[in-house]
């Protein structure tokens, strides 16, 4: 279990909570059922411990990879309380329904609870896989985390390059506007020519303009 990922731990906690809820119904129903048959609460508790608790213990042994002859009983864990649950549902349904209604409702309800228990127990068993597979899963989990960090870093780097490019373009435009607005006023044609001057030739063009000389040879083609 020390190799489990956070996702596997969360799944285990959720399934264990569901098992606890099911046991809160099945164990009291078992005690009530055996007490109804034998009329002795001590016998009822003893039978519940022998049947239900034994199945739960063998199930835990199976999860711990402890294999003995009794471990095979863990397969019966979801079905250990089937009859007591049917008895409980039938007692409740008789008060509300008549005819075959109580039996039908009790069978359906018991089947649903037992099927749910079966899949929950099987899902917990699936969490306890081979340690090598767990190690591979944990490595893949951390690799995905590193890949996510790299993807975020690449996205931030691209964004920073875009912002830097926009800043350079803004600086270029500002330099052109400074040249165009300094000194005497330019004609429309001179404005058009000056605005097309490349960024690296701005200083040279400004010096030629201040001298009243032509700077068309510095413009972009």
Tell me the helix content.
Answer: over 70%
Strand content: under 5%
First-residue to last-residue Cα separation = 70 Å
Global shape: elongated
Which parts are unreliable, with pLDDT below 50 for 5 consecutive residues or more?
none
Number of domains: 2
Class based on secondary structure composition and strand pairing: mainly alpha
Radius of gyration: 40 Å
Q: What's the total count of β strands?
A: 0
SSE pattern, N- to C-terminal:
HHHHHHH
Oligomer state equals single chain
Largest sheet: none
- Average pLDDT taken over every residue: 77
Number of helices: 7
What does this structure look like?
This protein is mainly α and 221 residues long. It has two domains: 6-128, no CATH class; 146-218, no CATH class. The protein contains seven helices and no strands. It has helices at 6-38, 41-63, 82-94, 101-127, 131-181, 188-195, 202-210. Helix 1 (6-38) crosses helix 3, helix 1 runs antiparallel to helix 4 and helix 3 (82-94) runs antiparallel to helix 4. The longest helix is centred in the last third of the chain and has 51 residues, at 131-181. It is elongated. It starts with 5 loop residues before the first helix and ends in an 11-residue tail after the last helix.
């Amino acid at each position: 279990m020390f190799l489990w990922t956070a996702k596997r731990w969360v799944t285990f906690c959720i399934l264990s909570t569901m098992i606890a809820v099911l046991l809160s119904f099945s164990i009291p129903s078992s005690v009530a059922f055996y007490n109804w048959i034998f009329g002795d609460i001590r016998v009822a508790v003893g039978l519940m411990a022998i049947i239900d608790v034994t199945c739960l213990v063998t199930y835990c042994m199976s999860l711990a990879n402890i294999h003995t002859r009794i471990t095979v009983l863990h397969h019966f864990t979801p079905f250990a309380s089937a009859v007591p649950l049917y008895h409980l549902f039938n007692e409740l349904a008789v008060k509300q329904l008549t005819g075959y209604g109580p039996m039908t409702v009790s069978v359906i309800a018991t089947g649903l609870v037992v099927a749910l228990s079966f899949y929950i127990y099987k899902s917990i068993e699936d969490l306890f896989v081979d340690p090598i597979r767990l190690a591979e899963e944990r490595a893949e989990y951390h690799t995905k985390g590193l890949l996510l960090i790299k993807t975020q870093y690449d996205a931030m780097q691209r964004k920073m390059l875009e912002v830097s490019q926009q800043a350079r373009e803004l600086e270029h435009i500002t330099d052109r506007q400074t040249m165009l607005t300094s000194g005497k006023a330019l004609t429309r044609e001179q404005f058009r020519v000056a605005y097309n001057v490349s960024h690296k030739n701005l200083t040279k063009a400004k010096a030629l303009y201040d001298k009243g000389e032509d700077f068309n040879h510095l413009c972009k083609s």
